[in-house]
Give the backbone structure.
Amino acid sequence: MILDIDHIGILVESIEKAIPMYVNLFGYILQKTVTMESVGLTVAFLKQGQTNIELVAYTGNTDQTAFSRYVMGEQAGYNHICYAVDDLTKTLSDLESVGINAIEGFPMKGGHGKIAFLDPNDTEGALIELCEPLD
Amino acid sequence: MILDIDHIGILVESIEKAIPMYVNLFGYILQKTVTMESVGLTVAFLKQGQTNIELVAYTGNTDQTAFSRYVMGEQAGYNHICYAVDDLTKTLSDLESVGINAIEGFPMKGGHGKIAFLDPNDTEGALIELCEPLD
Protein backbone atom coordinates (compact mmCIF):
# COMPACT_ATOMS: atom_id res chain seq x y z
CA MET A 1 0.00 0.00 0.00
CA ILE A 2 1.21 3.51 -0.84
CA LEU A 3 1.56 5.44 2.44
CA ASP A 4 2.70 8.96 1.63
CA ILE A 5 5.19 11.01 -0.35
CA ASP A 6 8.65 10.46 1.08
CA HIS A 7 10.59 13.00 -0.97
CA ILE A 8 10.99 14.82 -4.27
CA GLY A 9 14.29 14.11 -6.02
CA ILE A 10 15.85 16.99 -7.96
CA LEU A 11 18.84 16.34 -10.22
CA VAL A 12 21.37 19.19 -10.20
CA GLU A 13 24.68 19.76 -11.90
CA SER A 14 26.27 21.53 -8.94
CA ILE A 15 25.13 20.59 -5.47
CA GLU A 16 27.38 23.35 -4.07
CA LYS A 17 25.40 26.00 -6.00
CA ALA A 18 21.99 24.41 -5.46
CA ILE A 19 22.10 24.06 -1.66
CA PRO A 20 22.49 27.78 -0.85
CA MET A 21 19.78 28.64 -3.40
CA TYR A 22 17.22 26.34 -1.78
CA VAL A 23 18.27 27.32 1.76
CA ASN A 24 18.68 31.08 1.37
CA LEU A 25 16.01 31.82 -1.24
CA PHE A 26 13.34 29.12 -0.91
CA GLY A 27 13.32 28.51 2.85
CA TYR A 28 14.59 24.94 3.05
CA ILE A 29 16.64 23.62 5.97
CA LEU A 30 19.66 21.50 5.08
CA GLN A 31 19.63 18.31 7.10
CA LYS A 32 22.63 16.41 5.80
CA THR A 33 24.72 15.75 2.72
CA VAL A 34 25.76 12.20 1.97
CA THR A 35 28.10 10.85 -0.68
CA MET A 36 27.11 7.32 -1.70
CA GLU A 37 30.17 6.07 -3.51
CA SER A 38 28.69 2.70 -4.48
CA VAL A 39 26.11 4.43 -6.71
CA GLY A 40 28.18 7.50 -7.63
CA LEU A 41 25.85 10.06 -6.03
CA THR A 42 26.04 12.98 -3.67
CA VAL A 43 22.66 13.69 -2.08
CA ALA A 44 21.68 16.73 -0.01
CA PHE A 45 18.60 16.21 2.17
CA LEU A 46 16.51 19.35 2.72
CA LYS A 47 13.18 19.99 4.40
CA GLN A 48 10.57 22.74 4.28
CA GLY A 49 7.47 22.17 6.39
CA GLN A 50 6.14 18.73 5.43
CA THR A 51 8.14 18.58 2.20
CA ASN A 52 11.43 16.75 1.84
CA ILE A 53 13.55 17.35 -1.21
CA GLU A 54 16.74 15.60 -2.17
CA LEU A 55 19.23 17.39 -4.39
CA VAL A 56 21.08 14.69 -6.30
CA ALA A 57 24.33 15.10 -8.22
CA TYR A 58 26.47 12.50 -9.97
CA THR A 59 29.96 12.31 -8.51
CA GLY A 60 31.56 12.05 -11.93
CA ASN A 61 31.60 9.71 -14.87
CA THR A 62 32.76 6.63 -13.02
CA ASP A 63 31.48 3.09 -13.45
CA GLN A 64 29.54 3.63 -10.22
CA THR A 65 27.42 6.36 -11.78
CA ALA A 66 26.43 4.29 -14.81
CA PHE A 67 23.43 2.53 -13.24
CA SER A 68 22.25 5.76 -11.56
CA ARG A 69 22.49 7.61 -14.88
CA TYR A 70 20.53 4.79 -16.57
CA VAL A 71 17.73 5.14 -13.99
CA MET A 72 17.64 8.92 -13.45
CA GLY A 73 18.92 10.24 -16.78
CA GLU A 74 20.94 13.36 -17.47
CA GLN A 75 18.39 16.16 -17.45
CA ALA A 76 18.76 18.57 -14.52
CA GLY A 77 15.44 19.36 -12.87
CA TYR A 78 12.69 17.52 -11.04
CA ASN A 79 13.61 13.89 -11.41
CA HIS A 80 11.37 11.65 -9.33
CA ILE A 81 8.84 11.49 -6.54
CA CYS A 82 9.37 8.78 -3.94
CA TYR A 83 6.39 7.24 -2.18
CA ALA A 84 6.80 5.25 1.05
CA VAL A 85 5.10 1.83 0.96
CA ASP A 86 4.46 -0.68 3.72
CA ASP A 87 5.28 -3.74 1.62
CA LEU A 88 7.38 -3.19 -1.49
CA THR A 89 7.11 -6.75 -2.81
CA LYS A 90 3.31 -6.72 -2.65
CA THR A 91 3.04 -3.18 -4.07
CA LEU A 92 5.27 -4.10 -7.02
CA SER A 93 3.20 -7.24 -7.62
CA ASP A 94 -0.05 -5.21 -7.51
CA LEU A 95 1.37 -2.63 -9.94
CA GLU A 96 2.71 -5.29 -12.27
CA SER A 97 -0.77 -6.78 -12.51
CA VAL A 98 -1.98 -3.50 -14.04
CA GLY A 99 0.98 -3.13 -16.37
CA ILE A 100 3.30 -0.90 -14.30
CA ASN A 101 6.72 -2.52 -13.94
CA ALA A 102 9.88 -1.78 -11.99
CA ILE A 103 12.98 -0.84 -13.98
CA GLU A 104 15.27 -3.85 -14.44
CA GLY A 105 17.69 -4.16 -11.52
CA PHE A 106 15.10 -3.29 -8.86
CA PRO A 107 14.17 -3.82 -6.07
CA MET A 108 17.51 -3.14 -4.38
CA LYS A 109 18.78 -1.71 -1.12
CA GLY A 110 18.97 2.09 -1.32
CA GLY A 111 19.53 5.03 0.98
CA HIS A 112 15.93 4.82 2.26
CA GLY A 113 15.55 1.09 2.74
CA LYS A 114 14.38 -1.29 0.07
CA ILE A 115 13.66 0.71 -3.09
CA ALA A 116 12.40 0.34 -6.64
CA PHE A 117 12.06 2.80 -9.50
CA LEU A 118 9.08 2.26 -11.81
CA ASP A 119 9.46 2.41 -15.58
CA PRO A 120 8.29 5.89 -16.64
CA ASN A 121 7.00 4.36 -19.88
CA ASP A 122 4.36 2.70 -17.68
CA THR A 123 3.49 5.80 -15.58
CA GLU A 124 2.60 8.52 -18.10
CA GLY A 125 6.19 9.79 -18.20
CA ALA A 126 6.82 10.42 -14.49
CA LEU A 127 9.70 8.61 -12.77
CA ILE A 128 8.33 7.17 -9.52
CA GLU A 129 10.41 5.64 -6.72
CA LEU A 130 8.92 3.41 -4.06
CA CYS A 131 10.66 2.78 -0.74
CA GLU A 132 9.97 0.41 2.10
CA PRO A 133 11.80 1.81 5.12
CA LEU A 134 14.14 -0.61 6.86
CA ASP A 135 13.37 -1.49 10.46
CA MET B 1 8.64 36.06 1.01
CA ILE B 2 8.26 32.40 0.04
CA LEU B 3 5.45 30.91 2.12
CA ASP B 4 5.10 27.24 1.22
CA ILE B 5 4.84 24.80 -1.64
CA ASP B 6 1.53 25.31 -3.41
CA HIS B 7 1.67 22.40 -5.86
CA ILE B 8 3.78 20.15 -8.03
CA GLY B 9 3.02 20.39 -11.74
CA ILE B 10 3.27 17.19 -13.78
CA LEU B 11 3.07 17.35 -17.56
CA VAL B 12 1.24 14.38 -19.08
CA GLU B 13 0.32 13.40 -22.61
CA SER B 14 -3.05 11.93 -21.67
CA ILE B 15 -4.87 13.39 -18.71
CA GLU B 16 -7.56 10.71 -19.16
CA LYS B 17 -4.98 7.97 -18.53
CA ALA B 18 -3.06 9.82 -15.82
CA ILE B 19 -6.00 10.66 -13.52
CA PRO B 20 -7.09 7.07 -12.78
CA MET B 21 -3.45 6.04 -12.26
CA TYR B 22 -2.86 8.70 -9.60
CA VAL B 23 -6.28 8.14 -7.99
CA ASN B 24 -6.49 4.34 -8.04
CA LEU B 25 -2.83 3.43 -7.60
CA PHE B 26 -1.18 6.30 -5.74
CA GLY B 27 -3.94 7.40 -3.38
CA TYR B 28 -4.72 10.88 -4.71
CA ILE B 29 -8.16 12.47 -4.55
CA LEU B 30 -9.33 14.26 -7.69
CA GLN B 31 -10.65 17.69 -6.80
CA LYS B 32 -11.50 19.19 -10.17
CA THR B 33 -10.49 19.30 -13.81
CA VAL B 34 -10.39 22.66 -15.54
CA THR B 35 -9.82 23.49 -19.20
CA MET B 36 -8.18 26.90 -19.56
CA GLU B 37 -8.73 27.72 -23.21
CA SER B 38 -6.81 31.01 -23.16
CA VAL B 39 -3.55 29.16 -22.42
CA GLY B 40 -4.40 25.87 -24.16
CA LEU B 41 -4.26 23.69 -21.04
CA THR B 42 -6.37 21.11 -19.28
CA VAL B 43 -5.40 20.82 -15.62
CA ALA B 44 -6.53 18.17 -13.13
CA PHE B 45 -6.13 19.16 -9.48
CA LEU B 46 -5.37 16.25 -7.12
CA LYS B 47 -4.51 16.06 -3.44
CA GLN B 48 -2.88 13.49 -1.17
CA GLY B 49 -2.41 14.53 2.46
CA GLN B 50 -0.62 17.88 2.38
CA THR B 51 0.50 17.47 -1.23
CA ASN B 52 -1.24 19.04 -4.20
CA ILE B 53 -0.34 17.91 -7.68
CA GLU B 54 -1.60 19.31 -10.94
CA LEU B 55 -1.66 17.09 -14.00
CA VAL B 56 -1.24 19.37 -16.98
CA ALA B 57 -1.93 18.50 -20.61
CA TYR B 58 -1.85 20.69 -23.70
CA THR B 59 -5.20 20.86 -25.43
CA GLY B 60 -3.65 20.58 -28.88
CA ASN B 61 -1.28 22.48 -31.10
CA THR B 62 -3.26 25.68 -31.21
CA ASP B 63 -1.89 29.20 -30.98
CA GLN B 64 -3.12 29.25 -27.38
CA THR B 65 -0.72 26.47 -26.38
CA ALA B 66 2.35 28.20 -27.85
CA PHE B 67 3.22 30.32 -24.82
CA SER B 68 2.52 27.42 -22.43
CA ARG B 69 4.77 25.13 -24.48
CA TYR B 70 7.49 27.80 -24.48
CA VAL B 71 7.35 27.98 -20.65
CA MET B 72 6.77 24.32 -19.74
CA GLY B 73 8.37 22.49 -22.66
CA GLU B 74 7.38 19.19 -24.21
CA GLN B 75 8.85 16.56 -21.89
CA ALA B 76 6.23 14.56 -19.97
CA GLY B 77 7.10 14.21 -16.29
CA TYR B 78 7.64 16.46 -13.26
CA ASN B 79 7.53 19.94 -14.72
CA HIS B 80 7.56 22.56 -11.98
CA ILE B 81 7.10 23.27 -8.30
CA CYS B 82 4.96 26.25 -7.41
CA TYR B 83 5.66 28.21 -4.23
CA ALA B 84 3.09 30.58 -2.75
CA VAL B 85 4.47 34.04 -1.97
CA ASP B 86 2.95 36.94 -0.06
CA ASP B 87 4.18 39.65 -2.45
CA LEU B 88 5.14 38.54 -5.94
CA THR B 89 6.54 41.91 -7.07
CA LYS B 90 8.90 42.13 -4.08
CA THR B 91 9.92 38.46 -4.31
CA LEU B 92 10.77 38.84 -8.00
CA SER B 93 12.78 41.98 -7.25
CA ASP B 94 14.68 40.19 -4.45
CA LEU B 95 15.42 37.22 -6.72
CA GLU B 96 16.48 39.46 -9.60
CA SER B 97 19.03 41.11 -7.32
CA VAL B 98 20.76 37.73 -6.92
CA GLY B 99 20.57 36.87 -10.62
CA ILE B 100 17.35 34.82 -10.75
CA ASN B 101 14.96 36.25 -13.33
CA ALA B 102 11.38 35.58 -14.36
CA ILE B 103 10.80 34.20 -17.84
CA GLU B 104 9.84 36.97 -20.27
CA GLY B 105 6.09 37.52 -20.29
CA PHE B 106 5.68 37.18 -16.51
CA PRO B 107 4.23 38.15 -14.10
CA MET B 108 0.75 37.51 -15.44
CA LYS B 109 -2.65 36.43 -14.14
CA GLY B 110 -2.85 32.64 -13.86
CA GLY B 111 -5.12 30.00 -12.42
CA HIS B 112 -3.75 30.61 -8.90
CA GLY B 113 -3.63 34.37 -8.83
CA LYS B 114 -0.68 36.45 -9.99
CA ILE B 115 2.03 34.09 -11.18
CA ALA B 116 5.54 34.06 -12.56
CA PHE B 117 7.77 31.27 -13.80
CA LEU B 118 11.51 31.67 -13.12
CA ASP B 119 14.11 30.99 -15.79
CA PRO B 120 15.45 27.46 -15.12
CA ASN B 121 18.84 28.62 -16.41
CA ASP B 122 19.01 30.72 -13.23
CA THR B 123 17.78 27.99 -10.82
CA GLU B 124 20.08 25.01 -11.38
CA GLY B 125 17.77 23.53 -13.99
CA ALA B 126 14.51 23.38 -12.01
CA LEU B 127 11.44 25.21 -13.33
CA ILE B 128 9.95 27.17 -10.41
CA GLU B 129 6.59 28.93 -10.39
CA LEU B 130 5.68 31.59 -7.86
CA CYS B 131 2.07 32.54 -7.14
CA GLU B 132 0.51 35.30 -5.11
CA PRO B 133 -3.05 34.23 -4.37
CA LEU B 134 -5.73 36.72 -5.35
CA ASP B 135 -7.92 38.12 -2.58
Notes: The CA atoms of residues 104 and 111 of chain B lie 18 Å apart.
